[in-house]
Amino acid sequence: xxxxxxxxxxxxxxxxxxxxxxxxxxxxxxxxxxxxxxxxxxxxxxxxxxxxxxxxxxxxxxxxxxxxxxxxxxxxxxxxxxxxxxxxxxxxxxxxxxxxxxxxxxxxxxxxxxxxxxxxxxxxxxxxxxxxxxxxxxxxxxxxxxxxxxxxxxxxxxxxxxxxxxxxxxxxxxxxxxxxxxxxxxxxxxxxxxxxxxxxxxxxxxxxxxxxxxxxxxxxxxxxxxxxxxxxx
Length: 233
Hints:
The chain crosses the membrane at residues 12-29. The chain is of the alpha/beta class. It has helices spanning 2-29, 34-49, 75-82, 103-106, 119-133, 159-168, 212-232; strands spanning 50-56, 65-68, 87-92, 111-113, 137-140, 172-178, 184-185, 190-191, 194-200. The radius of gyration is 18 Å and the shape is globular.
């Protein structure tokens, strides 16, 4: 049975890759309707891994930036599925070099950052400020990458993002993703749908707490520990 599930799962991966490729092409051909294409693709991708999505907490319509844990490449699709508004992601500059797929980031107001170039941070601040003026929402993963060894534990947060948020005094809403990475099994590879949870924490302004970045990380890790301990129990 596992072998059969593995074969089916590979077909799902192929379907997902085709969905991303087509969405990238459509964003390049018809950028005015990019949000519609992105949302449709996100729902298709999320449906591959979620048997149910539970939302806890309220999404703050006035938040400027969503900051959360990075568990899997499909984290973006998940957030795109649960937040109706257009989200502007801060992403690696390398994504803008992938054929066809690059249109999903270069034609959709996404903010690409070259971590090896200090001037890129200045450009990022300018672009975030411009997006906020247009009432668009920003989203990013403070870890910068995902913890492949143990997705239940947060990696250290990158300091650069903290400085940008404080400089622009953005209203922050943290979120925590639960169970998504465990939809992917190994030996053999297969996809098993999970009950995925997205927990939205209360929003705040960084100026109200000098230690907001450290406190936010601590609170997020506490939630991860509690959720996964309950699952084990």
